[in-house]
Amino acid sequence: MAERQATVRVNEAKRQAIESRDSHFLALEWFVNHDLSTFLKQYPDYAPFPETVLAARERMNWCREQLRKVWAGLDPAGIRLMILLGLKKSPDWKDRKGLIGGEFHSAEVKPEEVLLDPTFAVDACSWTEIVIEQEKNFEGQQFIIQENGEEEVGDPGVFDFGSFGPPEAKLMADWQTSGIRCEFKTNFQNAIYSLMQESWRAKICPICRKYFVAGKSAQAYCSHECYVERKNKASLDYFRKKGRAKRVARTKRKMG
Ligand SMILES: [Zn+2]
Questions:
Q1: What is the CA(23)–ligand 1 centre distance, in A?
Q2: Residue whose C-alpha is closest to residue 64's, from 31, 38, 34, 87
Q3: Could you give the number of structural domains in the chain?
Q4: Do 61 and 141 sit in the same domain of this protein?
Q5: Spatial distance between the Cα atoms of 154 and 88, rounded to a whole number of angstroms
Q6: Is 79 a member of any domain?
Q7: How does pLDDT run across 150-169, given as a tens digit for each residue?
Q8: 220: CA distance to ligand 1 center in Å?
Q9: Mean pLDDT for the chain?
Q10: Do residues 41 and 166 both lie within one domain?
Q11: Has residue 49 been placed in a domain?
Q12: Strands 211-213 and 99-100: what pairing?
């Protein structure tokens, strides 16, 4: 009897795990496919940042661009994935002196990420633009900084590139289980981690370009409608190529 109860408990735990995984996947689908307001209305708990932080919308849109690239397999060095998961902070981006017309003009000022993946330059630059735009709001303002009881006028330092990405994940090493595990701060990051573990599910529909999470590995289209559309198009193509030739041959036979 005890064994039976244990099995019921295990099954229940499995069911709950699948349920939370599925809601993670749904939330991510909404995030990458819809505009930010629609997404936030539907899944406020999955916002990458609290809406109250400075430049929250710009940051979230930036994250969405990065997730789309990860989803599409356009993150060869895993940099975007690391940033989204909070496993990578990039203080090097602070150095904007090397930026000319959206490009880093010399190798020395190129952030490590850009050296690893040149396609990341564009994303590093768009991040930089968000920061520059925000800093404009603080131009000419003086900030009083209190340190050890003394007051002094200081740099607002509103934006620290190092803390601009989604919250940092906590790595935990466990001697007993010989494992290293990650603790994420947000649902958004937990959801990305779930999808990463089954990354084969992340697909883009070739018909409507929607980003979707596939139920089975053979599923190539986001919906039955897109599958039917593809099938109809395929038979139309077939008819155009082969069908016409056959008809011509048939007509020739009849006439002959
Ligand atoms: Zn589709």
A1: 20
A2: 31
A3: 2
A4: yes
A5: 28
A6: yes
A7: 766 655 555 565 566 788 99
A8: 9
A9: 84
A10: yes
A11: yes
A12: unpaired
